[in-house]
Structure formats: C-alpha cells, structure tokens
Design a protein that fits this description.
With about 775 residues, this protein is an alpha+beta fold. The protein is built from 17 helices and 34 strands. The protein has a 4-stranded antiparallel β-sheet with strand order 3-32-31-30, with no helix packed on it. Strands 4-5-6-7 form a 4-stranded antiparallel β-sheet, with no helix packed on it. The protein has a 4-stranded antiparallel β-sheet with strand order 8-9-10-13, with no helix packed on it.
C-alpha cells in the first residue's frame, strides 16, 4: 500500500507554491505569455489589414465628391455688364457694359483700376472736319450690339451697330514687389475690322486670336457670312512686322444666331434659330462643309470646350448637346454624341473652363448647373446669385464662377477637384473626342496640354483576369498532377529530392523571372512558335508511347529502379522528343503556316503576333505559381490517412483508382485552397507582367497580344502621378479594388473549403 509523502516545505498545500499539480509555475507563466503574444500578433495583423483598408478608402473617397460652391467676392459696377470675366489669379474682375465701357475692378478693395471706352470715336462713314462732322457724330453714334468676353485663347470682341468688330486683348501682367505678387491689368491694341461697309449691325460675330493671327467672322444683315484674317509676321533679325489681310465669303446658307471659331482658326461653327448647327472649313471657304439639323430646338448659346474639339450647344428647351467631328474613312462628320441637362428654361449662357472639359450653363430663369462633358457628370446645380444675369464666365482655372447683372458682379468659388471621373468613367464606356463610338480606355497622359485623360479601369481589370487565367491554365494541371504523382507514386527516397527542388523555385525573385521572360523567352518563343504548337499537340502521344515502352520493358529490368523513378525516363523522352520537334521547326512552319506563321495568323485569323504577349506571361507567371500550388497540394495528398488508401487497395481497387477516387476527393479542400492561393499570387504579380508584356491596356483574349494589369499599372503610373491629383487617387482606387478582389476570393475559397471538408470528411 502506497503512502503519501509529506510536502516538501513540511506544511499542507506547499505543492501549490511550485505549480498546479505537476506543472511548474514558470511553465504556466510562459504558456500564458506565449498565448497572449500569439493572440496579440494575430490581432495586430487584423488591425494592420483594417488600417490598410481604411487608408485606401480615405485616399480614394474624394473621387466621388461633387463640387462645393461657396459665395466669394462682390463688386459694384457703373453699369449693367454685357460680358464679365476674372483674371487667372482671381485678383481682378473685368466687365464691358452695353455702352462699350471696359471696367476692371480689384476684388481686394472694390476699386476700379482701369476704365476705358472701347468704341471708336468716329462712326463708320463719317469723314471730314468742322460742323458737318460734328453733326454727323451726334446724329449717328456707334453703339454696342454684342460683346464676347476674353476667355482662354479667345480675345475680347465687341460688335458695333455700324457693322464693325473691335478685337482687343486684356492682359493681366504679374510682378513681384517685396515678395508679393502684384497683378496689373493692361489693354492691348484694339483692332478694328469692317465687316459690313454699309454700316448695318451684324447678325452674329466671332473672333479668335493666337500666334500673331486674328480671325473674325460675322454675318451681315443681308445674310452673307464673311471672314477677315490678319496675320502678323515679325522678322527675327530686323524686328520689322508685316501684316497680311485675307478676306473671304462663306456664303449665306443659314442665318446664324451663334458663331464660334476653334482655337486653330481653321473651323467655324454656327447655330441657328431652326435648331441647326453648321460647320465650315475656313481653309476651303465657300458653303458649309456640313449642316447638322437633328437638334430640333433653337440654338440659344454655343461654346467650345478646352482643346477646341467639343462643341457645347445650349437650346431653347433647356437641353445641352455635345458635338464633335468624327473621322470616318476619308471624311469627317459632325456628330452629336451626348445630351446633358436639361435646365428648366432656355440656356442663355455657356461658360467653359480653361482647365478641363467642364462648363457652366445658366438658364433664362436664373438656374445654373456645372457639368463635365465627357463623363456626363452634373457637378453642381443651384440658383444664380444674380437674378437674370446678363453675363456669366468661369475663371481660366475653372475655380471661380462670375455672374454679372444689376450693376454688380458676384462670384462663387467652385471646388471640383476630380470632375472628370465617375463610376461610369471607371466601369463603363465613354465617348471620347474623335472616337467613333463609346469605349473603355486607359490613357492617363498625352502629348499636349489639351489632352483628355482616359481613366477606364475595365481594360486593367480585363488584363488582370487574362494574365491570371493564362498563368493558371499552365500552372494548375502541372502543379496538382505533379503533387499527386510525387506523394502517391514516387518512392520516399526520391520524394525527399523532388519536393524541395520544386519548392526552391518559389525563391526565385519575380523580377528575375520577368527579366528572363522579356529578354530571352519572348524572342525565343517568337522564333520557335510553330515548333511549340507542334510540341503541345505531340506531347500526350509522346508520353503514352514512353509509358508503353516502360511497361514493355522486362520486369527484372524495372525492378532495379525504385518506385517512381520512371519519371526520369519520361523526362528524358520528352527532352529528346522536344529537341527533335524544335529542330524541325522551320519544316513545320512551312508545312502548317505557308512559311510565315505571323502572316498566316493575320491573313487567316486576323490576329497580330506581338513579341511580348499573354503566352509569354502565362509561361513565366505559371513558372512562379507552380511551386506554391505544388507545395500545398503535395502536403494535402500526404495528409490523407493511409488507412483510407489501404482499405481501398484491400477491396480490389488499383493504385490509380485509389488515388483518383479516394485520396483526391479527401484532399480536395486543401487542393482548392492551394489553387486559390495561386490565384492570389497571379492576381498580385507585378514585375513579370511589367517586364514581359507590352503593357498595352486593351481588351482582347488573343494570346498573341499584350495586356496591362491593375498591379502593373500602379507600378507604371505612380512615379508620374501628382500627389492628390485625379490619377494619384485613381491608382489608390485600383489598389482598393485589388484588396477587395483578394478579400472576396479568399472568403469564397474558405467557405468552399469548409464545405468540401464536411462533404468528404466522412470518407
């Protein structure tokens, strides 16, 4: 009979001082410490992921904001303005009244810094001196018929009642005094064009000036449309200036209510009260090149947006049409591409921005709306701060809207940081300038300041899916079948060599794989593509023949080798067979593709072969994904209990039936997880795609074309993206899409894995 030993300390309960039961207290403390450390690490990982998600959302959220409009400066005028505009620095506001007086007001204190009459002192046809001339001046003074404000690339235009056009430029010259910017307004030379020698007022007029050339167009009361152009050339050596005057008649096909000249001074657009829009090629002259008559409602306002290609037409019914010319075959056609609005009343003013394709529209009833043309986005709508404004303008930067009327000027500060983007911009198709139809395009930069950014994400999403599918098409069969063969058929001694060898492939940097794929694999694939096609077709028969030869070998000979070592025989047979196929590549190209496979592809299938294409990326990225899927799948096969396989073999099933019908279903949850991990690796791959494709954001499933993925696009664009700009935040949006896509894929994979494990867990 056993006896109880007394406690070490000699008193009851002394064993608790060393621990509970036989576990030392130190071990308990370490166990609690480690458990808390592991829990903190897991929670920290979750917190970091959530913090990353929040950061991406914060950076991308401003893209969905609309415009914020706030009241700004207010200044008094001596008369009601017919035209108003603000300087680029938002320091002065200029206006021209109905009596032809130019007034420039400093916004800081409301002081008038420049005031001058623009009308000529002598009316048209008044000559001589003395009492007769004085009487004529009093009897027939010139008055203002219409005024067009100075806007980007558009001079100040005043049309008089005696058929003359006055063209001038108001310059706001900046200088720095005591490190403070001082803006000084100055009125340049006033050019006078006589468009109607009969002294009758013009029905409509337009002007454009740039690079020393000024073009004016006006329609006489008789209906004749006339153009005058002055070109000034300066001798760089002598400084001598030569002026050339050109006059031409543009016919009288329509009666215009609105006229607009494009920045290149090569095209003229006219709107009519019958709802027509006509287009002239000023280089050819004569009658209009085209008249578009499907607008339906009378044209009440017209303007050209930045770049001079998109024509904005306001109509009597309050709707706003966007038109531009589209080249089809050998001709250009003026096409209505979209309709915005409508406003509640007729559009009376259209004020384009000098920075982008946004514009301000004001209706007859005083309602105002700020649009972005390409994205068809309504940025802001509200009431004009001036009841029934007589003049409206946007600042050159598009950040201030100026309204004139009732003897005063009121301005609104417009904060629209990202007007060019919308959900349709990213995930739909937009009709960009000059395109034949609406398209999804990614092209963030161009060769001029007038370039319109195209930020469609569909080509990038398509490219991501394309690259992923092509890589998995190669990686999944090789990795899973290789893992099955290694774990179920190969001798353990050979298995200990094969598995680490394949896993070592995962240690290769993706930049090295991309470099090899771009500089070595792509040219080799281009020169041996016909042989590769033949090799893919003949590989299965080659393996079948190799297996038949191995099975036909004497049993005594095969017994000398360990189980699974026949893989070496298959590898040697494949290498010898492929070497022969690639050596006969030119013969196959001549036999199958008439001697030039690239020409055959283009003429027969309409496909072009680019050297860096999806096939190259599929091979290189598949090489990077295979080790990941192989390692997880091999562990899954090896983890299947041996009693399941033994029971199947005992019931009479052969080895292949046991593996495919017992082992494979049992391991399927982990195999599915392996494929999902490989999918995530392929989706996020950057360097291989960046170096092995042409990075062309096109939507084409052809394996012979390149593509651009979301991750590669971030790597390409982020160095040139201005901080806080639209492109910068769009790249964060693409990162958020990658984050969300990976999260959804992993969540679905886990749900499927759990369901499969429940289904096959009873085997």
């Amino acid at each position: 009979m056993a006896t109880l030993e007394p406690p070490i300390s000699g008193r009851p309960g002394a064993e608790t001082s060393r621990g509970i039961g036989s576990i030392p207290r130190r071990r308990l403390v370490l166990d609690r410490w480690n458990r808390g450390l592991i829990a903190a690490g897991g929670q920290g990982v979750i917190a970091l992921i959530l913090a990353m998600f929040v950061f991406l959302v914060i950076e991308a959220f401003p893209l969905v904001r609309g415009a914020e409009v706030k009241p700004a400066d207010d200044a008094s005028l001596s008369a009601a303005p017919s035209a108003v505009w603000v300087d680029p620095y938002r320091t002065h506001v200029a206006s021209v009244s109905s009596d032809g007086t130019l007034q420039v007001v400093r916004l800081a204190d409301g002081a008038t810094v420049l005031e001058r009459s623009l009308l000529p002192e002598v009316p048209l046809g008044v000559e001589g001196t003395g009492a007769n001339r004085s009487a004529a001046l009093e009897a027939a003074p010139a008055t203002v018929e219409r005024v067009s404000p100075a806007r980007p690339e558009t001079p100040l235009l005043v049309s008089t009642s005696d058929g003359r056009l006055l063209v001038a430029e108001l310059v706001f010259a900046p200088s720095f005094v005591d490190n403070r910017r001082v803006v000084t307004p100055a009125l340049g030379e006033i050019r006078i064009f006589v468009l109607d020698p009969g002294g009758r007022p013009l029905l409509a007029a337009a002007a454009r000036s740039s690079d020393g050339t000024t073009t004016v167009v006006g329609q006489r009361a008789s209906g004749e449309l006339v153009m005058q152009r002055i070109a000034v050339e300066e001798n760089l050596f002598t400084g001598e200036r030569t002026e050339t005057l050109e006059r031409s008649s543009l016919g009288s096909a329509i009666v215009a209510t609105q006229l607009v000249i494009d920045p290149s001074q090569r095209s003229l657009y006219a709107g009519t009260a019958a709802g027509e829009v006509a287009w002239w090629d000023l280089g050819e002259g004569g009658e209009p090149a085209e008249i578009l008559s499907d607008l339906g409602s009378p044209v009440t306002a017209m303007a050209l947006l930045k770049g001079g290609r998109t024509l904005v037409v306001g109509r009597q019914d309050g709707s706003i049409a966007n038109l531009f010319r589209i080249r089809r075959a050998l001709s250009e056609n003026l096409t209505r591409v979209r309709t915005l609005g409508p406003l509640a009343s007729a559009v009376t003013h259209l004020a384009p921005s000098g920075r982008d394709r946004s514009f301000l529209a004001v209706g007859e009833g005083g309602e105002a709306a700020l649009f972005f043309a390409t994205s068809e986005r309504l940025l802001w709508s509200g009431r004009s701060p001036v009841a029934s404004p007589s003049a409206v303008s946007l600042s050159p930067k598009g950040d201030v809207a100026v309204f004139g009327g009732e003897g005063r000027i009121t301005s609104l500060v417009v904060d629209a940081p990202h007007p060019e983007v919308s959900w349709r911009t990213y995930f739909g198709r937009l009709w960009y300038e000059g395109a034949e139809k609406a398209e999804a395009i990614w092209q963030s930069t161009g060769g001029s300041d007038d370039f319109e950014s195209k930020l469609g994400l569909l080509p990038l999403i398509f490219g991501t899916l394309k690259g992923t599918l092509y890589s998995l098409f190669l990686a999944v069969p090789i990795a899973i079948l290789g893992a099955m063969y290694t774990s179920q058929f190969v001798h353990p001694r050979l298995q200990r060599v094969l598995k680490p060898t394949v896993e070592m492939m995962a240690s290769l940097p993706s930049v090295v794989l991309g470099l090899v794929a771009g500089l070595w694999l792509a040219p080799k694939l281009e020169s041996h593509f016909p042989a590769l096609v033949v090799a893919l077709v003949l590989t299965p028969p080659l393996l079948i023949v190799s297996g038949a030869l191995w099975a036909a070998a004497p049993a005594a000979f095969r017994a000398r080798f360990t189980t699974g070592s026949e893989v070496i025989w298959f590898a040697v047979a494949l290498l010898v067979g492929w070497a022969g196929i690639f050596e006969a590549g030119p013969w196959f190209e001549k036999l199958l593709f008439a001697g030039d496979y690239q020409a055959w592809f283009y003429e027969t299938l309409g496909l072009r072969y680019d050297q860096r294409n999806a096939a190259v990326v599929g091979i290189a990225m598949g090489f990077a994904v295979i080790p990941i899927i192989f390692s997880i799948a091999e562990d899954a096969f090896s983890s299947v209990p041996q009693n399941l396989a033994a029971g199947s073999l005992a019931l009479g099933a052969n080895r292949w039936e046991t593996v495919t019908q017992v082992v494979l279903p049992t391991a399927s949850p982990a195999i599915f997880s392996a494929v999902m991990v490989g999918l995530g690796r392929a989706v996020g791959e950057t360097m291989i795609v960046l170096m092995a494709t042409g990075n062309t954001p096109i939507m084409d499933w052809s394996p012979f074309n390149g593509f651009r993925t979301l991750s590669a696009n971030i790597a390409v664009e982020i160095p040139e993206a201005p901080h806080g700009g639209t492109l910068y935040r769009t790249l964060f949006l693409t990162a958020l899409l990658l984050f969300a896509f990976t999260f959804v894929i992993n969540t679905v994979a886990e749900l499927v894995r759990v369901r499969l494990r429940k289904k096959f867990g009873q085997l």
